[in-house]
Fold:
Amino acid sequence: MVRIELSIDLHYDVDGYGADFIFNFQAARTASQHLLQERLEISPSLPSRSHTDALTQARFLRLTAPPGHLHLGYRASLEVTHHLAEPGQLAEVPVARLPPEVLPYLYPSRYCPSDRLGVLAMGEFGSLPRGYGRVMAIQEWVQRQVRFQSNSSNSNTWALDTLTDRVGVCRDFAHLMIALCRALSIPARFATGIDYGADPALGPTDFHAYVEVFLDQRWYLFDPSGTAIPMGFIRIGTGRDAADVSFATIFGGVTSQAPIISIRALEDPAAGWQLPYRRREALSTDAGSGLSGG
Structure:
């Protein structure tokens, strides 16, 4: 079990017409991710509405802000349990046996044009034995082909751009890996968290994009950018790609500051808490049996 404490501070300056916000930055409540305590502060105090996606358990917060400065502060303490599996025992699931809620993660999406990558995917990975090993081969191929570089892409960058430019940030690595998996009829989805364990040389702690792939009736974690430690991920949102799970979608004239984020893990053998590390086993925070939210 992993015990994580995190804080997120978001700052915006709203222009003279006001703005509407849809946020997705609170930790998801799942069977494997237990929220011990959390606190949300909105300044100035404003009415807000919240809803949770029934399948993914992603939590969305909506509010309208008047002109002026807006600050949101979020603090949370969580315990995360992981399902561990031997990589060599995890098989791909034939399309005919996929649960209905998994099917959307087979299709092309805005940032993951899997229908454009079929020839490449089959040429590179089509002859490999099906299962976890083939998915790892895709991840390793993406890591060889693409170099991590901060501020090298934007909200319009999709997987084909990343394939051409060979540079990107975590979301670009994730989009390319997802597109290649789907091109091989392997369900894959985009997940957001925080980059626990990332090298400080890459920049301040930030939101992180990673991949979940459906194998043997369960969603397993992959980190194609290789910049963080999956055992320390706190799931925030999951979707087809980044368009579904932006931490802030803004309608109106707003100047944004960079998020201020911190995350730490606590160690206490007596309580069963261990510090996250890179494991050889396959990791999942999904309840299994095809449940999308876990």
